[in-house]
Write the structure tokens for this entry.
Amino acid sequence: MIGTYVGFVLGYVNLLILYPYFLSSEEIGVMRVFIDLGLVLGTLSMLGSNTSMFRFAPVFREKDSEKLSGLFSFFFIEGAIGVAIVCTLFYFNKSTFQWLFAKNMEEILPYFLWIIPLIALNTVNNLLESISSIRGRITIPVFVREVVLRLGYASIVLLYAKGVLDFESMIKCIPIIVAVQCFILLFYVKQLNISFSLKFRFFLQDPELRREFLVYSGYLLLSVLAGMFINKIDYFMLGAMKGASVTGVYTIASSIGIVVSIPKRNLKQIAQPIVAELTRKNDKAGLSLMYKDASINMIMLAMLIFQVIWFNIDGIFELMPNGDNFKEGKWVVFIIGSAFIIQVSAGIGNMIMSYSNYYFHSLWYSVLSIIVAVVTNLLLIPKYGGEGAAVGTLITNIVLTGTIVIINYIKGNVYPFDKRALLALTLFLALIAVNSLFTIDSYVVILNGLKSIIFVLIFIIVGYRLNLSSQLSKILEMVLERVGLKSWIKD
């Protein structure tokens, strides 16, 4: 989708130009941890409602005279309760959070109370995105999240650079930017003629349905929270154990690596309603086909993006303002990129489990993944710093993805990989190995750029010839046909 890829470009401008040029590594670290605390606690405030909404949408369509209006109202009430609980607990236990960061990252302590409005706003935004997705309208919400937010962050950094804002005011403007996102989404949802109704009595009066909802939401809350926690724990633990400066370097490097997961962001919004419906109909054949296709598509796209980044990594740091302050994070980029290739390889595996009748197994892999994440970071960060946090993320993703694949195979008899995945991996590793044989010390940007073009073209052409992904091959043919080169790749 256009919003995702425009956001991708803006994200790169922010991370590789604006932030390194105008902010110190300490300031980048504080900004990162502040935003991520709001995201994680906002996810907790939803009490699993973002996933439950999709599972119970068919029930409301069939039994509720108000159709989905009762569903939306019900989950907004649940979200409000979640925000009240989480914000209250956070406020009365803020001293515990402050203690965690007091030794090595005291710079964030003055802003802790400003995390509370961030929690509430992130919860509302997540609910509004889920509502739009259920209605099949995700373009605008994605654009707002990927583009408007990044423009907002860029704006406050530029105002800080111009002296209009001091650093404290810049951080306090972050909830205002998220509030703008919220108002835009509210206006958009209103334009969709989505109504809200408190008439969901049938749901509350059906004890079996009510029990299913409570159990399902409880398990999935842990699963969703674990996923968010695992993706953010490296920043929190690195900040608490090594300080804001190391976290700032890690933020830039890991954010470059995380770009490989961009294709999966759109997959979630598009696939969730389809997976929920296939699961409800118990269409194993359709689910299995979708699982394999999503997996190979994500693998190919993630590997392609990884190669573009890694083959140009030295040039990226050379072009980056104050790049010498951040190039120590080079191997963090490689490790984090590898970790997210593994994560996206499972495709829609997590969604399949979430909407299946064995969803409760998410509790076990969630607990296991959190334990692995905490233990690996505790062991590796003190000695290896940012690279240790990256390795911890890699190990955690291996355990998490492997567990999801195994559970889906044993319980659901669906599996994401076939020989296409093995061929793609072999091709990818061969190109990475060959690339390592070339050392370029001069004209780094130009020569690395040319080298990356050659290797990426090899990956695309060989992948096309092997027909690793029929969907991506069709897209490639369509693009080449428009520029009059379709016959070139077929010859």
